[in-house]
Amino acid sequence: MGSKKFTFLLFIFAMLLSAVVTSCRKDEDLQSFKNDKDSTALPSSSGSFIATTGELSITFNDSTYIFDAEKDSIAFVRVDTAGNKYFGITAINDSHSMSFGISGLGEAINKSSTKVEGSQFLFVNDKADSSFTLSKSAHEMDLGKLSLKKYTNEKDDVAAKGTFVTYLASDTGKNATLHKVTGKFDIRFK
């Protein structure tokens, strides 16, 4: 049962990550969209959007990493799968050397909080490629929280602001070493 849930959560996260990969075309397409002052188009009516301003910062192993929406791709994603609603934030930096994503179960609404259902942090540095995911033991211990302090999806105000804490491991075994990851985001579509 646990491995099926973990596989499902990885699938959900892969969907979130695919939204970011798709948004990597942002450099060209989004710039032309932002320059079109007469455009009445907004992000998807589903409530998902690619940020044009704001930041996502994560602290992992005493280092802080920042994604800036003006140069990196950051997306707030809402998904409704078989009656289950999820929301999350995912990002990839401009050089494609680092990506992060986190999702929680529930509806994206103001002043809400939910447990983390999926999370992943990937990065490449001079020494090696690194991959960290939500461990099985984190699910069993119900560790991790995703909080929305603000979420709006109105014509002139599309934004998401919140915080999170999760525990990631370099492998999915029960005895894997957990690394605490904290972060915050404050993003907007203008």
Any key phrases for this structure?
190 residues, alpha+beta, 11-stranded antiparallel β-sheet, 11 strands, 19% helix, globular
Mind explaining what this structure looks like?
- The chain is an alpha+beta fold.
- It is built from three helices and eleven strands.
- The termini are far apart.
Helix and strand topology:
Layout (H helix, E strand, L loop, with lengths): L1 H22 L2 H10 L13 E2 L2 E8 L2 E6 L4 E9 L2 E9 L5 E8 L6 E13 L4 E6 L1 H5 L4 E10 L2 E13 L9 E11 L1
Antiparallel strand pairs: 1-4, 2-3, 2-11, 4-5, 5-6, 6-7, 7-8, 7-9, 8-10, 9-10, 10-11
> What overall geometry do the principal axes of the alpha carbons give?
globular
Strand content: over 45%
Work out the number of β strands: 11
Helix tally equals: 3
Compressed to H and E, one letter per element, the order equals: HHEEEEEEEEHEEE
Low-confidence stretches: 6-11, 14-43
Q: What is the first-to-last residue Cα distance?
A: 43 Å
Q: What is the total domain count?
A: 1
Structural class: alpha+beta
Overall average pLDDT: 77
What integer value in Å does the Rg equal?
16 Å
Helical amount among residues, as a percent range?
A: 10-25%
Largest sheet: 11 strands, antiparallel
